[in-house]
Amino acid sequence: MRRALRGFTLIELLVVMAIIGVLLSIAAPRYFNHVEHARDNALRQSLAVMRDAIDKFHADTDTWPATLDELVTRKYLRTIPEDPHTGSRDTWTVEAPGGGNGVFDVHSGATGATAEGQPLAEQ
C-alpha cells in the first residue's frame, strides 16, 4: 500500500499569503504613523527638559548659559538629549537672547515637519 503524501496545495499557500498580505497592508501604515508620533512626542519632551534647564540656569546665575554643554558641566542636565528626528546630539539649534550671547532657547535642527504639519525647526 502506498501512503499519500500530506502537505499544502499551492492554492492553500497562496490564500494564506494573500491573507497575510492584506493584514500587513492594514497594520504597517498604522505602525509607521505611531512611530512618527512617538518621535514628535520625544522631541517635545526633550525640548521641554532643555528649556526648563536653561530657565533654571538663568534663575540661579542671572546669566544665560554660553552653550548647551555648559548645562551639562554645571549639572543642570545629565546629558544633552538626542534629537529624535536627526539621531544626533549635535544638531540642536540655539537662539541667543536679544542679540546677545548665550543660549536663550533651543530648537530642533531637523528639516521637515511633524505629523501634524508644523515645521520641526519651530518646535
UniProtKB/TrEMBL annotation:
Residue ranges crossing the lipid bilayer per the database entry? 7-28
**UniProt cross-references to SUPFAM superfamilies, sorted A to Z:** Pili subunits
Question: Which domain of life does the protein's organism represent?
Answer: Bacteria
Q: Does the keyword Membrane apply?
A: yes
**Region feature (Disordered):** 82-123
Q: Which UniProt keywords apply?
A: Membrane, Methylation, Transmembrane, Transmembrane helix
Q: Does the keyword Methyltransferase apply?
A: no
Residues spanning the signal sequence: none
Specify the protein name. Prepilin-type N-terminal cleavage/methylation domain-containing protein
Source species, please? Uliginosibacterium silvisoli
